[in-house]
Amino acid sequence: MSESTIERSQAPLSAPPQLPPKETRRVLRDAVPTDPWAIVRVVGFVVFTVSYIWWFLDEGLIIDRISVAISVGIFIAIGHLGRPLRRWAWLVFDCLLYCLMWFMYEESRGWADRAGFPLQVEAPRNIDRFLFLGTDPNVWLQREFYDPLHVHWYDKIASATYYSHFIFPVIAIAIVWVVSHREWARFMKRFASLLIVACAMFIVVPTVPPWMAADRRTYHYETLAPLARHTGRGFRALGLKGFVNLWQSALDWGNAVAAMPSLHASFALFVPAFFLPLIKPIWLKALVLTFPVVMLTSLVYFGEHYVVDGLVGWALVGLSFLFWGWFERRQRRVRANRARVALGLAV
Amino acid sequence: MNNRSVLLDGSLLDAVLAPDSPRHAGACALYSDLIDNYVAGRDLLFALSTVLDRMPKTTRHGALAPITTLHVSGQHRAAAREVSGLEYPEDALTVVMLRRERIKTIATASDTWDGWDVEVLKAAISSRTEPPPDPAPPAE
């Protein structure tokens, strides 16, 4: 116990507490010298944002994992400029965990090929048919809305929503990382759990996506009426060059039979759900939650996923939030009880 | 995510841990309320590493288990040296950490923060040692 606090804890308190009027109180901002690095960080973020937008418009959306990791790394490094060494040490540790998570994700695609679990071709289609009273939602949406000769406004919205998957969660992770390490840990626990369970499902329940099930030229499953896979068309119509080509090359590395659960649908719900407590107006909450609905509708419209893939993805997000919410509450109760017992307070 | 961050200063923790302090009962009552809020997810509790480091490990993991450490670094100490008008260096450090970590609420057992533009949660004066009031005479 320091001398100063011993002295103060022995001294009688002046009572009752009469606080001085607000205008005469000392303000923290005036009392504490400004952190010179704060200005450097702000300038760094502005330069980064301008460069990122320029790159996006000129070269296309950064999408392959290595380039994304580099851009996120630069963003986070800017956020840590002038921070204490301990924060940098945490950052290195966090980065290692983050890389390990994505490495496991990439590796799981190879494991899925080697494990040899039976491909699910008809089961997801049958579930969708059951849910929609005998109709195939993919086929119905394309029949009603898809026009091979014209790109409609909804094609552009659906395509932009689809591709937002590649930057939306990453931006959220980077911002949370810079703003609060504690919140980042909360975010990543939920995110990593979701990814791990999804990877396990990719291995155990390898599921053929609708576009593949409908394909007549290469795969010959033919369990659905023919579907167009027109995912990038709307995005190209928006004048965003370079993006689709990069995505197509990324697709080649991917596990094509990893439809269940849909990570597109999961992430589209995950990010808004995490930030939902910060949003006060109910109408805005409802508006934010339309994003995952638009995403799932787009996925079904493009023939990328069945509806059930998205529903399972949402269920996993819900389970991840429920589990970690319960675990964190339990941790708080345990710590509180320890404190109460130690101090002889009523438990 | 919407929780209030509360910094528990050295005077409060010392009063909580010293049963013979005249402020012990009030400090414990305040700490107990803060713990209730912590369990309910309303408050996050913080204390400076300089304060927690002088506590025994068993206390840190027992009585102070709900509290998260705010690590004080060299740059915080340097900034604290430039803060004027505070009697103790630890208070200057507290001011710096409140500002840098954007904490707007402080829980204390002293009068130090009365003149500051922060939300002050102050331990009530103990009435434990005072004799109980005389019972009112029965009504006739």
Topology:
The complex is a heterodimer of chains A (347) and B (140).
Chain A: H1 3-10, H2 28-31, H3 36-58, H4 65-79, H5 85-115, H6 123-131, H7 137-145, H8 153-164, H9 168-179, H10 181-204, H11 210-213, H12 233-237, H13 243-253, H14 263-275, H15 282-288, H16 290-301, H17 307-343
Helix pairs in contact in A: 3-4, 4-9, 5-10, 8-16, 9-10, 10-14, 10-17, 14-16, 14-17
Chain B: E1 4-8, H1 10-17, H2 24-39, E2 43-48, H3 49-52, H4 57-61, E3 67-70, H5 74-81, H6 89-100, E4 105-108, E5 119-122
Parallel strand pairs in B: 1-2, 1-4, 2-3, 4-5
Helix pairs in contact in B: 1-2, 5-6
What structural class is derived from the secondary structure elements of chain A? mainly alpha
Estimate the helix proportion of chain B, in percent.
Answer: 25-40%
- Largest beta sheet: strand ordering of chain B: 3-2-1-4-5
Number of strands of chain B: 5
Discrete helix count of chain B: 6
Terminus-to-terminus distance of chain B: 58 Å
CATH architecture of chain B: 3-Layer(aba) Sandwich
Low-confidence stretches of chain A: 11-16, 242-252
Oligomer: heterodimer
Number of domains of chain B: 1
Q: What is the count of DSSP helices of chain A, taking H or I runs of 4+ residues?
A: 17
Question: Gyration radius of chain B, to the nearest Å?
Answer: 17 Å
If you average the pLDDT of chain B, what whole number results?
Answer: 87
Helix content of chain A: 55-70%
* CATH superfamily placement of chain B: 5'-nuclease
**Uncertain spans of chain B:** 128-136
Per DSSP E runs of 2 or more residues, the count of β-strands of chain A stands at 0
Element pattern of chain B in H and E: EHHEHHEHHEE
The span between the termini of chain A is 27 Å
CATH topology of chain B: Rossmann fold
